[in-house]
Specification:
33% helix, alpha+beta, 15 helices, five-stranded antiparallel beta sheet, globular, six-stranded mixed beta sheet
Length: 522
């Protein structure tokens, strides 16, 4: 059977086009020559378009100047199909599926290091070992140059190739030759184990190699960074908040900057940790009924002022959380306007799980009903993304961004000496600290808060039938009066926001492109 017939046969089955129905339609048309031509059905149009695809495939397969890989042709066609839809729908091939699952689960078999090419020597360098991992226990240190892996030189080895060797089946031994910053060489042996990459992080490591979530021990201001919304993120965040409450936390800064999003259900779980009732988010697809997720009172962390940090790279699940807490006046949003991704993707297995489609199937909406999604032709004056509250817009220039990334990278290094000193001032974080400190000094209820609460727009509440619905009035920190006109943006704000839209498809590889060179875990 030719490839053309094979593709057409599959297309016919997939489109559920019984040939008997097609023949019946043809006989009816021949039997009544006076009747007008029958309109072409949607199924017939699909079948004809698949015929075009089959003809093209056959011509390329037979007559292209070089022999082609049929699998690559089909995968290229699938990727082209997804690219035509939107920047967030994609085909995930067998070679990429494992990497995608790692991003979702944040777990893999490896030795537990973050590696990147040195920008000067281009040699593979350890950015930081992960606490408690085989590499950390074996003596791998930040700044080590990996000279060889299992006896093979890394001189011309790419980061991806090195990671493939370092990752693998748990329990197997890996030997790496390292050059320590002081010049000493050492052969280190270790066994692979399941590596869990934490998405909940503090400002720096403590002496016991755990994250320090208490930013200001004197004023009891907690600080939590959430780098993504992976499978265990909500549980990790709950553990961090429990620890902070045990230390007497009185205020919290939740940092969602550079967070590209993740799982929708995890985003609603995170928002539910801070909301006692009310709508968190609603989703609506073409073939699905509207689904609304409500907050529940049990397990809620309340009784403290809260600020959320966002920037132009906070997207998707980050926007769900920040929008929900902003709309319910639970927290103020500080920083920059967010990315603007208001769509939901489902992962659909193909080939019995060997490959998959990540397909946009629904849009989501914030509690206030305001639009989140930024369409390709969206303007600065249009409604999209999550805007910081009034008087809390704190833009970063490109230079500020580079300095912050380097500052953050240095503080995230696991070192016995602790985080290095730096002259960099994180003005977005400083603004958040000023806000929560002010709330604490005025018992969390200023005159501006009272005014904002009185003008609070109605937000849909949890249905009264719910046994876990809220009793009483919602309390929370101040937020902007939404009826006021937004202040005109200055040049720095316009420049920083417009630069994020220069490449609409950039978000797919955002975590790697945020740094000057890629950092990968192994």
């Amino acid at each position: 059977m030719s490839w053309r017939r094979w593709v057409l046969s599959l297309s016919a089955v997939a489109l559920l086009l019984p040939m008997g129905l097609l023949r019946g339609a043809e006989e009816e048309e021949e039997g009544d020559s006076k009747s007008p031509p029958a309109a072409v059905s949607k199924e017939d149009q699909y079948f004809e378009m698949m015929r075009i695809f089959a003809d093209t495939f056959e011509q390329v397969e037979r007559n292209y100047v070089k022999e082609v890989d049929r699998r690559k042709l089909i995968e290229a066609a699938l990727r082209g199909m997804m690219d035509e839809l939107d920047p967030y729908s994609s085909y995930i091939g067998p070679e990429d599926l494992a990497r995608f699952n790692v991003q979702v689960e944040q777990e893999f078999g490896g030795i537990g290091i973050q590696v990147a090419p040195d920008p000067r020597t281009h040699r593979l360098t350890v950015v930081s070992p992960l606490p408690g991992t085989p590499a950390y226990k074996a003596g791998v240190r930040a700044g080590d140059t990996i000279m060889e892996i299992n006896g093979k030189s890394t001189e011309k080895m790419s980061v991806d190739d090195a990671v493939k060797i370092l990752k693998g089946k748990t329990g197997e031994e890996v030997t790496i030759g390292v050059l320590h910053p002081g010049g000493a060489k050492e052969q280190l042996k270790m066994q692979r184990a399941i590596i869990h990459v934490a998405t909940v992080q503090g400002d720096s490591y403590k002496s016991d190699d755990s994250w320090n979530f208490m930013l200001d021990p004197e004023k009891k201001v907690g600080y939590v960074r959430l780098s993504g919304f992976a499978r265990n993120s909500a549980r990790e965040l709950k553990d961090a908040l429990t620890d902070l409450k045990a230390q007497g936390m009185k205020a919290l800064v939740l940092d969602l900057r550079f967070n590209p999003g993740g799982l929708l259900n995890v985003a609603t779980e995170v928002a539910d940790l801070f909301l006692e009732d009310g709508k968190i988010v609603s989703t609506k697809g073409r073939n699905t009924e509207e689904r609304t997720v409500y907050a529940r009172k049990p397990g809620t962390f309340t009784g403290f002022p809260m600020a959320i940090l966002v920037n132009r790279f906070s997207a998707s699940a980050s926007e769900i959380v920040s929008a929900a807490l902003q709309d319910h006046k639970r927290a103020v949003v500080i920083g920059e306007r967010t990315w603007g991704k208001g769509s939901v993707q489902n992962v659909i297995d193909l080939e019995s799980g060997k490959s998959a489609l990540k397909l946009t199937t629904a849009s989501y909406h914030r509690p206030s009903g305001k639009n989140i999604h930024r369409f390709p032709d969206a303007k600065e004056t249009d409604e999209w993304g999550v805007l910081p509250d009034e008087n809390f817009m704190v833009p970063f220039s490109e230079d500020d961004m580079r300095k912050y990334i380097e500052y953050r990278r240095q503080r995230d290094v696991l070192s016995k000496e602790g985080p290095p000193k730096s002259d960099f001032t994180d003005k977005q974080l400083a603004k958040a600290i000023d806000y929560v400190t002010e709330q604490l000094s005025s018992d969390g209820k200023t005159e501006a808060t009272a005014k904002a609460d009185s003008a609070k727009p109605p937000i849909e509440k949890t249905p009264e039938k719910s046994p876990e619905s809220k009793d009483g009035e919602k309390k929370g920190p101040p937020a902007s009066d939404k009826d006021k006109k937004e202040p005109e943006k200055n040049d720095a704000e316009k420049k920083s926001e417009s630069s994020a839209r220069e490449n609409w498809r950039w978000l797919r590889s955002l975590p790697q492109k945020l740094v000057e060179f890629p950092i990968k875990a192994a």
